[in-house]
Fold Alanine--glyoxylate aminotransferase family protein.
Amino acid sequence: MILERHLFGPGPSNPYPEATAALGLPILGHLDPAFLAMMDETCEWLRTVWGTANARTLPLSATGSAGMEAAFVNTVHEGDVVVVAVNGLFGQRMCDVAARCGAEVVPVEHEWGTPVDVDRVTGAHPSPAIIAAVHAETSTGVRSDIAGLGAGKGDALLLTDAVTSIAGIELHADEWGIDVGYAGTQKCLGVAPGLAPFTINDRAFERRVEKPRSWYLDLGLLGGYVGEAGTKAGGGRTYHHTAPVAMVASLHAGLGRILEEGLESVWARHAAAGQQLQDGLEQRGLELFAEKGSRLPELTTVKVPDGVDSAAVRARLLERFGLEIGAGAGAYAATVWRIGLMGHNARPDAVELVLAALDEVLA
Amino acid sequence: MILERHLFGPGPSNPYPEATAALGLPILGHLDPAFLAMMDETCEWLRTVWGTANARTLPLSATGSAGMEAAFVNTVHEGDVVVVAVNGLFGQRMCDVAARCGAEVVPVEHEWGTPVDVDRVTGAHPSPAIIAAVHAETSTGVRSDIAGLGAGKGDALLLTDAVTSIAGIELHADEWGIDVGYAGTQKCLGVAPGLAPFTINDRAFERRVEKPRSWYLDLGLLGGYVGEAGTKAGGGRTYHHTAPVAMVASLHAGLGRILEEGLESVWARHAAAGQQLQDGLEQRGLELFAEKGSRLPELTTVKVPDGVDSAAVRARLLERFGLEIGAGAGAYAATVWRIGLMGHNARPDAVELVLAALDEVLA
C-alpha cells in the first residue's frame, strides 16, 4: 500500500507535483550536455530565489545541514572569532559546527521564541571574522532581521541560514549583505530533502580557506563541478563528484514551478496561509509560541494546551488523517507543536484541513 | 521532451525500475514510523550486500565521495600514518582526503590498469594506523584483492572503497577484514546517485575520532540518526539531520529488487554480461586496458583505436543512440573508454546494443 501523508510538520513538506514528477523520470548522466544545461539553469534560478547575483550559487550534494558545514569549513580560519546569534536549535548547532572548524565561538544567547537582537549581536565582539545567524528558526518559528545584521556587520562576513526562509518569505541576499548563505530543498522550495542550495559572494570567497578540511565541500573544487559563472553548458567542467542527478532534476522542476507562479506571489501565498492558520489557532484559544511581530507564516509554533498529551495528539493525527505536525524542539519538545505550511502546502485548503483535524482530535 | 539514455558509462547507471518507481511516490516525513521502519530495513539489507554484521551500517546522506570523507574524518587522528594503495584516480583522491584529515600519507603507487600489490602495500610501513585501498577502481576497471590486504593488515584498520564493487561482484566485508567501507548507490546497486552506503565495525568505531572535524559525517552522532542496532523502529532516534527520504526509499526499493533476484544471481549476471562484452570487444580487435585476470565485469576499459577521436565517438553514440559511454580518467582521458554494465544494465541485450552501436560508429 502506498502511504500518503499531509506533511504539515517543520519539513519535509509535500513537494510540488512538478518536483515529484521529475524524480520519476529517467535519469541523465552527470556529464550529459542536457544535464549540464539543467544544472546551469538550476543555479540561475537559485540566484533568483536567493536574491543574489553571486556566480558561486549552486546546490550542494547533501542536505541543508551539510550546507551549514560548507559555510563554516570554507570560511573559518583557525582561531577566527565567530559571533553566533543563538535563538534556537540551529543557532546552537552553528556553534558546534564552527568550533569543529577551529573557530573561537562567541555565542549570543536569546530566549527561544524571540528574534535575534541586532545590536547585541553586532556589538558582541569588536572585530569578529564572521557573524552568523538563522533567518527563520525552524525550532521556534521566528523570523530575524538579517538586513539589520548586514548593515551592522562592519568588516565581518555575514553567514546566514535560510533553510526555512528560502522561497517562503522575502530573502534578498545581496541587498541585505549576506556573504555566505545555505538552505535546504525540503521546506518552502517544495522539493524532497537531499540538496543544500548555497551561495557565496566574491568577498567571502576571497577570504576562504584555501584547502579546507572537507574535500567534499571544498568550494574551490566545487567551482569546477558547476562550471562556474559564464561557462557554457557542456564545457569547462571538472569532475569532482557524481552529481545527484535525480535530486537536481527535481529541484530544477520545483524552482521552475515557483518562478512560473512568481516569487512574490509565492511569498504572498505563504503569508496568507500562515495568517489564516495563526488566526484560526488563536480563535480556538490556543496560544502561539513565537513572539508577535516575528512569526513565520510558513512555520507556526503553538503551545500544547495544559493537560494535553502532545505525542498522543500527533499520533492520532497521523493515524486518523495521515497528517503530520511536528513536536517542539529541545526543551520545548513536549510543550510546543510546530505546524508547517510550506511550498505546495501553503494553501487555504491545507489550513482548513489542519484546523478541522485539530478540532476533532482536541475535542 | 523526456530524454532517455542508455547509461553505459562508469555511473550513474540506469536504475532498476523499482528504484525509479519509488522515487516518484509520495514522500514520508523523516520521523514517520513507516519511514523509520523502511530505514531499518534498508540498513539491514545493506548489511547483506556488504557481507557484514556491523550494527553501524547505514546510507550516508550524500554521494559516494562523501563516504570516502566520512571514512577518513572519523578514523584519522592527527599525525596517523595512512598507507594508501594508489592504482587509479580514487586511490589518489584518498591521499588528498586523508591528508586534509591530518594523516601522514604513505602512498604506494601502481601503474594504472594493474591491481594493488598486496605485499608492497602491507609492507610499506611497519605500523600504519590505516591501510586504504579501492576494491574496484572506477578509473581503470581493475579489481584488487581486498581479502589479501585484510589478511596482512596487522593492527591497522583496513579502509575500503567499494563504490563500484558493491552488488556487482563478490564483497565480504567481515570475512575479508574490512573495518571501514563506503560505497555509492549509482553503480551496481542500481539506484540514482545521492547516498553513500557505509559500514564500520566495532574495532574501528572504538578507535574513532571522538569529535571529528565534520559534524555532518560524525558517526558518533549518526548512530542516533538510524537508531543504531537493535533499536526498534520509531523509538530511540535522535534528530541529527533530515533524512533524504526520497533517495532512501529508492535505495530500499533497489536493494529489495537485488535481494529478490538473489545476490549471487546478481553477481553471476554481472559476470556474464562483462565477459560477453569483453569477448565481443576483443573479437573486434579492440584492446582491453585493465590487466587480464583483474578485469571488472561491471566496468570495462578499452583502448581507443589509433586514429580514432574518442570524444567524437562518444558524442555520436549519444546523439544517434542516446547511449553514453565514459571517457578515460586522468592521463587516459582521450585514449581509453570506460563501458559500464551495472545493476539493471548488466544484461545480454545491453551488451548486444553497445557492441552494435560501436560497430556502426567505428565503421
